[in-house]
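Complex record, four chains
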Amino acid sequence: MPLFETVFQEKPAIVMEIGSAYTKIGFCGEAHPRFILPTEIESIRDVLKKTEKNLYDQAVDFFNKIFFDYLLVSPKDRKVSFVESTITTPTLIRESFAKVLFHHFEVASILFLPLHLVSLSTLAIDTALVVDIGYKEAVILPVFNGVQILKAWQAQPLGGESIHDGIKASLILNGVKDEILSERVIEDIKVRTCFVTKQARAVAHRNNESIQPCPDVDYPVDGSDVIKIPGNLREFALEVLFPEDNDYLGLPYIIIDAIIKCPVDSRKELAENILLIGGTSSMMGIKSRLRDELRTLIKSEFYMDRLYIDDVKFHNAPSKPNFTGWLGGSIYSATDLISNSITRENYLKHPKIPDWIFYDGSSTRNQG
Amino acid sequence: MEICDTYYSKDEFVETASGNKVNRQTVLCGSQNIVLHGKVIVDKGAIIRGDLANVRTGRYCIISKNAVIRPPFKQFSKGVAFFPLHIGDHVYIGENSVISAASIGSYVYIGKNAVIGRRCVIKDCSIIEDGAILPPETTLASFMKFTKEGKIEGGQGTESVPPAMLDLMVDFTKSFYEHFIPSTH
Amino acid sequence: MSRNENKVKIMPKAIVCEDCIIQGDVTISSGCVVHPSAQIIAETGPIVIGENCIIEEYAKIHNRIQPESPDKPHILTIGPNNIFEVGSVIEASKIGEKNIFECKSFVSSDVEVSNGCVICAGCHLSGGQHLLENTVIFGKHCQQREALDRISGSHMLQLDFLRKILPNYHHLRKAKQ
Amino acid sequence: MDFLISQNYVNYVCQCGLLKPLTNLYFCRHCLNLRCSFCCHHEVDSHFCRNCLENIPSSEAKLRKNKCNSCFDCPSCSFSVLSARATTIQVPMTVKEKQEGEESSTTTSEASSGKMVAKKMYYLACLACRYSSRDVGISDQASQNFCWPEQEYMHANRFNTILNYYQALVLHDKQVKQDEKRRKTTNKSKFQSMTDRTGLNVSAIRRQMGFDKTVSKPKNKPASILPSMTEEVEELSEDIFTKPINLKNITTIEQRFTQPANQPESVKHLYPQHKNLSIKRSIRCRHCEHNVIKPEYNPTSIKYRIQQFASSHVPEVRIIKCYPLMPNKSAFITLKLTNPTMNDMTITIMELPTDDEEVMMIDEMKKNFESLTVSSKSSLMRPSLIEDPRIVSCKPTAKLELPDSSFVINQRDDSAEFDDEIQTDKKDPKFVIWRKANKIAIELSITPNDLKVNDEVIVGFTMHYTYSTVPSTTAEKKDSQQRHALNARVYLNVGNIVDYSTK
């Protein structure tokens, strides 16, 4: 690793991916993030939430923690790369981050990297259907020959949050007290007991056929209570990602929708290059379930004659799904391409961050 | 806020020549092994286990109600031994706290209901929050704060521990002692 | 209360410091060490403490389980080789052997503790639990884990040391059957 | 009793507009202004391990990825540090020991080969949750500090190949571009920059895919990597439907994230983690670039090389007592003021600025700063930015009757510390209750606004004080001492409105 550091730059750039639940931080050119910690900016988890401190102050506190408690570097004159879901990150948030980093921490430059696109660099491919299932939502974006097909973009609020809500509601129905079911407890129940079941069993469950449920679990909560997690909840809590209703907005449907919005000649390649990223896609069994669901769908009457694809194939990134995006940023920032960042000088001249709508080449391009 | 006067009844406390004020209802086991270096307040119900090993405190220490100061033991292949426990100057130990540290530096604030596990080393100018639990053999560096949540935070130059902790603790323990006065009746 | 005091049975070779509070029908088996300011209160039924237990300062063992019928009180039996550290509060219904209750831990009356368990400092345990063998309860949220490799052996050595040291500094209660 | 909370009854306004207790503020001697950690610049000064308290030079810290070599965190409970435990085991004598043994004894080597000796072995154990390195199958080590087996990262090789590939690709792409420039072939389309920016440098990949035929294939084109797509997908094991799970063996998400690389799901893969280092930081004023805090390198030292605490420059205000507060009724508060400096101070208590005045102050400050940076702007220095000053968020809820004259607090005199004598000076104005060395107690009258029961009563004032700069070096003459008149805005939380109906 020191080799790259000396060859390319003295101080490795800081790479961050600030997700709605967890933040991944580390240095470029490294194979995994140094830390994964809960995102402590409330406005990101819940944009509408009224908080005492404004976004700027919260971001200052959080970045202070990142730089001085975790990464242990002086942010001054450092390069920073952000991996972010370009389309769904509110402008307010990215502009606040830029302001905090340039004003308060005086970083040298910031590079905003589109999550879906850089994820591909972990596989050294340039065409893939990237499915990001995070905490707040699932965002699907096809990338073909290195170009994001924006018109095929799909997003639905299917992610950790909706699973948590489901688990909580169902436990309360079973008579568990509301106050002991904190977000932390629910997440722990999800992570340690729940899984994505097989398609056949899910269908049987939906049709109210009797199936042998998986074993119940006695779950101790904070030493004060023991609650029973029914086998049904363990098995079917994640079915919220696969709703079967007339809206057809379940995960498999929106994946197919994304493919169908792409040109016919790119579909086959996209379907054979599916990349699952995001924290929720580390749930046990989700990949095999998605494959089964997708296979059923492409063979269904409705899609048979429209889709023209025969199979789906998945990629295995050299990472855990929850930091694949970060890893892409790490690889990207380790190359010379980091010189395309917005520099502090340029930012101070034009305090504006380019995005999809507003693009001013002058602020990103260095001469040359 | 200026510290209010704390009144105690003269019958309850013994004042030594060096200015230590020790409540009569404390349990000082093996008092020949306990050295209080002057102007130390030991409040009601506090236990100092000098019988297990030596206990030494510096000047201007405050040991609040029901605190237990207990030298730590260590196991060897041939047996166990209790180790002496040293406490520096200007240390405040809150109510109901259990102290089994190997050493506590100076200018340390320990909140109430804290547990300091066996053979911990607490360095100068640190804070232990109310109800914090330090696992055995933890080292708490200077200007660090051990929180209720079990995390170590702070460091020189952060707001978790005031940068002027030294002056603050000197002032606090001194004025606590000065305002700890016998009631007049 | 004086009537109850007489019910305290201290077996020979147990070391019980004078200034601890023992109330009700309490049996302390041989080899136990009870430090000063410990409390053992048999309120609703007898307490039987097994051999070689250590009960430290401000530890409180309290039997307050309401008996099902007045003539059949619940007996709190505590197995041998347990350690009750400073400030622990134990109201459990049953305790096996070789358990450690660390400083300021709390075990409520609906908890049953088997053998070889550790309740870490500051953990509060309640809510109808039955701890399996070698369970460790740790952390702020009372996480559970199974101890595969117990650090043991210090217990007897510590007892030996205490038995040697304590009589030099403390008045002890006389053993009586 | 809890002094950590009680401090916050008296807050000072930092120049940036935030309210902080005096102990958390700094005083920049060069700007003669209050600073706080928010409006100053932080820098990493030195790295150290907060467990073994060893200073680690920053280059070494970087090399070790900010981890301590010898200390390990418990992967199971994350808040405690693993300690090495010694055990003695019986091992057969090694050759070397055998030779030593031969020297001392006359027995033949054949006979002693079956002899066992006690050897000290170490393993790591957590004293809180009883985790031990044996739990995860790490064998005991002969040495206490080093050689704990490092965990391998399963994707490390694949990652390195990909990284090398990209770095070569980008480098290669750059060369191609330069070649083009030299040949002055204008091959640029105006759409290229758009896609360039978004990611993988499309042109590079297109070329590699063979789309762009105009570019001649250059010499060292990196070999592409085989795609990793598979039809094989990890199937859900059937066991999950039938076998009960043991929660104690499944890691929590917190435990997983202690090892971000592998994120083990089973407690059997929780390996000891090297402890993350901590830092000492120095804090710098953004206005004048001078340090307000610079600590010593030694991790155990509590001293500073530079320390500019506000509490040693600005008079400290404390509330001694306050009479019961009722709406619209005047009450007395007693304040204690302490002069921490070696010079006498003259203090005048004045009204807080009005909102308009505050805005004007902020504007002026901004202007001053701009003129400062413009004038001192050298070609090399990048302009430093200040935090936008804010309007104080706290509004007083009571009116303070200002004392009619100013007063003097004596200088600090360490020898007078043991004087307990309370001095009363006849010349002092009436509101001064007593004096003691460098302390003075004053009594002021406040009238709370029309508040409800239990509302907080907040009063504020501007404290105008004289400050003398001490010559920073002994070489400077004594008469270089300068007197300044400074202001500090102070907000006091004097208590809550009492319910007078119950009285």
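Note: The longest strand of chain C covers residues 39-42.
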